[in-house]
Design brief:
This protein is mostly beta strands and 299 residues long. It has one domain: Beta-galactosidase, Chain A, domain 5 (Distorted Sandwich), CATH 2.70.98. Helices cover 11% and strands 46% of the residues. The protein has 3 helices and 19 strands. The chain has helices spanning 2-22, 201-205, 289-296, and strands spanning 26-31, 34-39, 42-48, 57-61, 83-90, 93-95, 104-114, 119-129, 137-149, 152-163, 167-170, 175-180, 192-195, 212-219, 222-230, 241-244, 248-251, 262-265, 270-281. Strands 1, 2, 3, 4, 5, 6, 12, 16 and 17 form a 9-stranded antiparallel β-sheet that branches. Strands 7-8-9-10-19-15-14-13 form an 8-stranded antiparallel β-sheet. A hairpin with a 2-residue loop joins strand 1 (26-31) and strand 2. The protein is globular and about 50 Å long.
Length: 299
């Protein structure tokens, strides 16, 4: 009996040791005006916090292959910065497109709350400002980054926006959480954009309400991509999507306001938005994005 018990105890220890060894170590380090996030020592992404940028954003966003899955601006769309959050036409200001004098989401603080275990947690506070105008919005972002497996990385956003005055957002397609894909993965270059209903490409997904969207493509002998999942607690859930076959997608109700003209928010109102971004190997079925959202909606 003692021998059997000892054997069982040894087996449990081995299993636990194996799980600990398999668990990814996620770290964050602040270096100048950015925070670098690494998984087992490999760079996953950097959170760019520079006062010279339009807004804080993530770049690069490296997939399981260690190649970037997003792009950083181009001549036609210099306001697309990889993975970012902003909004145009807020009380006459522009917190999306280039030009700091038009409006800027300025970082007040970015604190690393947890690092070195199975996840990184960052808390980031920002003020929306522009010259000769009062700030309309303050936001606090809690960002949790983890690596559930070797072929799946996860970035969770909880974005709490406080209205510092009455806010009117005129109808705009430039708004909220957005991803600009690497050109190699874009639909126009053979990639796939698909929503939760299985609809494909810009023609069939543009303006459609859907709980999630996945964008992936093949390169270097493999397939990888990015998915954005909306949480059911969000206002306007599921928000309709602004999609482009050249590699852009964003869940945004601001282009389809209920009154057809604008979205109005009251002074003191708190708007909390939650998203999960998945960087994954395979297509949406191999990464099982549906199951991932089923889990997320119950969290």
């Amino acid at each position: 009996m003692k021998i059997q018990f000892a054997g069982l105890f040894f087996l449990v220890i081995c299993l636990n040791t194996g799980l600990m060894q398999a668990q990814s170590k996620v770290t964050a380090e602040k270096l100048g005006d950015k925070i670098e996030i690494r998984v087992n020592g490999n760079l996953l992404t950097s959170y760019i916090l520079s006062e010279h940028e339009k807004y804080p954003f993530f770049f690069p966003l490296n997939g399981p292959s260690k190649a970037g899955v997003t792009s950083m601006r181009n001549a036609n769309y210099p306001h697309h910065s990889s993975l970012f959050f902003g909004c145009d036409k807020v009380n006459g200001g522009n917190y999306w497109q280039e030009g700091l004098e038009r409006g800027q989401i300025l970082v007040l603080r970015a604190d690393i709350l947890e690092t070195g275990g199975d996840k990184v947690i960052i808390e980031n506070e920002n003020i929306w400002k522009r010259p000769r105008a009062e700030s309309p919005i303050r936001d606090v972002r809690t960002i949790t980054i983890s690596a559930p497996s070797k072929v799946l990385y996860q970035i969770d956003f909880v974005i709490r926006l406080e209205m510092l005055m009455d806010v009117t957002i005129t109808k705009t397609n430039h708004s909220l959480l957005s991803v600009r894909m690497d050109p190699d993965l874009a639909v126009i270059n053979g990639g796939t954009m698909v929503n939760a209903e299985g609809e494909l490409g810009e023609k069939d997904t543009f303006g459609k309400r859907s709980a999630w969207m996945d964008y992936h493509g093949s390169r270097m002998g493999g397939t990888e991509g990015v998915a954005i999942l909306q949480h059911p607690s969000n206002e306007w859930y599921p928000a309709p999507w602004f999609t482009r076959d050249y590699g852009f997608f964003s869940p945004t109700p601001m282009y389809w306001p209920e009154n057809g003209e604008n979205t109005q928010l009251q002074k003191g109102q708190i708007l909390t938005l939650r998203y999960r971004v998945l960087i994954h190997s395979g297509d949406q079925k191999e990464a099982d994005i549906k199951a991932q959202h089923d889990t997320y909606q119950n969290e």
